[in-house]
Every structure is written in C-alpha cells, then in structure tokens.
Amino acid sequence: MKLIYIVIYFLIPLYSGEKSEAIEELQNLVTNCLQKYPVSDDELARFGELHKDPSLASDNYKCFGMCVVQGRGWFIDDVLIDDAYIKYVASDVLAEHVDELYHIIKECKLLVGDNKCDTVFQVGSCLEQKSWELLKKSVKSF
Questions:
Q1: What is the residue range of 85's domain?
Q2: Of 11, 19, 53, 114, whose CB neighbour count within 10 A is largest?
Q3: How many domains does the chain have?
Q4: For 79-137, how does the pLDDT look when each residue is reduced to its tens digit (9 = 90+)?
Q5: Among residues 27, 36, 109, 30, which one has the least CA distance to residue 75?
Q6: CATH number assigned to the domain comprising residue 49
Q7: Percent helix, strand and coil across the chain, each to the nearest 5
C-alpha cells in the first residue's frame, strides 16, 4: 500500500489537471496500472531522474506511465491527443501560452521510442520538461 501512496504523491501534480476529479479515481487508475505493470519502489523513488534520462527506466515503468496517461485520455496507443493535453496544462498560469504549448507538443510528438511504451514515455518526458520550463518563464514574468 505504501507504493500506492508514493505513486499518487508524484502523479497527482502531473496527471490531475481537473480539480474536481476524485482522488479515488486516480488511485484506482494507478492501482490498475500497477497491477498490469509492476514498478519497484526504487524506480518510483527515482521518478525525476528517470524522466530526465529515459534510458534508466525499465519497460514496466514506461508501460505503467503509458497506462496512466491513456487512462487520463491524453494518449490513444502511442499518439498524443493534443487538445486533451492542452486542456490539462493550459489552466491557470499557462492559459495565456496555448500557442507556445502547441509548439511544444509539435516538437515532442516527433520523438519515437523502441516500442509504444517507450514512445509515450519519451513524448511525456519531453512535454513535462518543456512545459515546466515554460511555467518557470511565465512565473518569472509576473
């Protein structure tokens, strides 16, 4: 059960764009994905490191991530659904940066991995990194 709480701790900021979504839904999604693709406590603890260097992540970790983002409706197979991602990210501070977000998506969607899980992981890591950079830039401009 400790593993579930660790996963939710990291996934809520990344994967819960809709504020009204119940935590239980996310917990059920994470639980189901962990059952399909077991991930070690060590990998979860190295979450940030794995997203900076995708070669360090196991196939199960990448497939677990794909399972979660597919469950959120952001990807169908290994194809990013642009508008679903924009709806999540373009809330609050980034609402004024939709054009820049579409540019980020266009760039990140060019990445191709060894398999579907790897592709989704690489695209997701790219989106996360570049969206975070845009967010930092936006916050500094206040």
A1: 1-141
A2: 11
A3: 1
A4: 999 999 898 887 767 788 889 999 999 999 999 999 999 999 999 999 988 988 888 88
A5: 109
A6: 1.10.238.20
A7: 75, 5, 25
